[in-house]
Specification:
Blueprint lengths: L10 H30 L5 H5 L3 H29 L1 H19 L5 H29 L5 H30 L2 H9 L1 H12 L3 H7 L21 H29 L11 H29 L1 H20 L6 H30 L5 H31 L1 H19 L7 H13 L4
Helix pairs in contact: 1-3, 1-4, 1-5, 1-6, 1-7, 1-8, 1-10, 3-4, 3-5, 3-10, 3-14, 4-5, 4-7, 4-8, 5-6, 5-13, 5-14, 6-11, 6-13, 10-11, 10-13, 10-14, 10-15, 11-12, 11-13, 12-13, 12-15, 13-14, 14-15
Amino acid sequence: MSQNSNGNWDTSYEWKIILLLSLTFGLVGLDRFILPVILQSPNSTMGMDLGLTPEQGGQLAGYLGMAWGVSAFIMGFMADKLGRRAVLVPAIIIFSLMSAFSGLATSVMMLVIVRVIMGLAEGPVASTGVAVAVEASKPSRRGLNNGIFQCMISLFGLALAPIIAANLLESYNWPVVFMLVGAPGIVIAVIMWFVIREPLKQAAEAGKGGANESLGFSAVFGMFGHRNAKVAPLTLICAMGGIFVIAALLFAYLTAPEVAGGLGLDPLTAANVFSAVGVGGCIGQFAMPALSDILGRKITTLASYILAAVFLYTFSQTGPESTTVLWILLFFSSLFNFAALAILAGPVAAEAAPPGMLASMAGFVIFAGEFIGGGISPIIAGGLATEYGLRSAIYFAACGLVLGFIVALFMVETAPRKVAMHAGKEEATPPM
């Protein structure tokens, strides 16, 4: 890990790498979530130029999510095998280029191919990023640092993306906007190459265990001994489903006429309401994992799920008369939904991993959540919206959150502080 030779924790490296990971994951969010905003913006001709409908936009989000999930697992394993830098830096370069190439698409099929490749490149940033953050973090700050790093996808992708897209579309056409948002990632990749460390490779070379090139695929089948290694992927599907259904279809629900099952808001007002998803998600991903360091992973996850479901259902029953109420309800629903995601994909996955397989475990948990929750769920919700109206997609997301709460009941507590307290109590109890 990131300790100096004298045994003191290297906080300088810890905060540098968390800053870089945060900026990187923010760009992932911006590049990923700006597409539905551009597609549905009245100032963009993207839908008309490519013949894209909002339902196809949901399918694009689904394809990207499935690609993200598969690569998060496979490339997480490769990061354990070959090292963090060899996986993370090329991934950042590729997803940045694919964001720019989205602006060069001349057909729906070409855009699908570009976005799938983009998902394949973004998946390793999630799984390997969790591993790098955990390795750099002092154990008592593990939840906090993962929260800081992961919350940037909400801030950039769901809070700032609508604002950035709206302003850029005032001056540029949609292909140029995609190219502009893809450029910063190349700079981050170069800086990351010189900063990132390889603690597991160093440990392997020193004969202290850890991951190295001898790690075989057979090791994958032995990494599910911890109960949370089985529970976390299942419950994360529900958190991811809630988030990506909302990300793909909420703007359409806000702007569709009331006769068509929407709220009939004008695009600017809808964008302001939609920003609650990003603001709430950012705060939830930052604050709740940090709180789980103190209260515990399980109780914080359970509370996040049930509160997210309650606020989302209440949002679905609220009319367009008060956009402030809509914003507040969406803010709290997103805060708790993203909180569950961040806790499960970050510290819970890391603390369930066997030695030397941190990125592999994080990758598998993210794979399950992304492939089904982030990939298949928006496609199902898009079909429900077409058949039964846009509000049915919100009901679908809320039901998924309730299911996530039920599955999370089977988690075991792994927060270091809570585990240490429990162990201390057991030691203090005299044998019968």
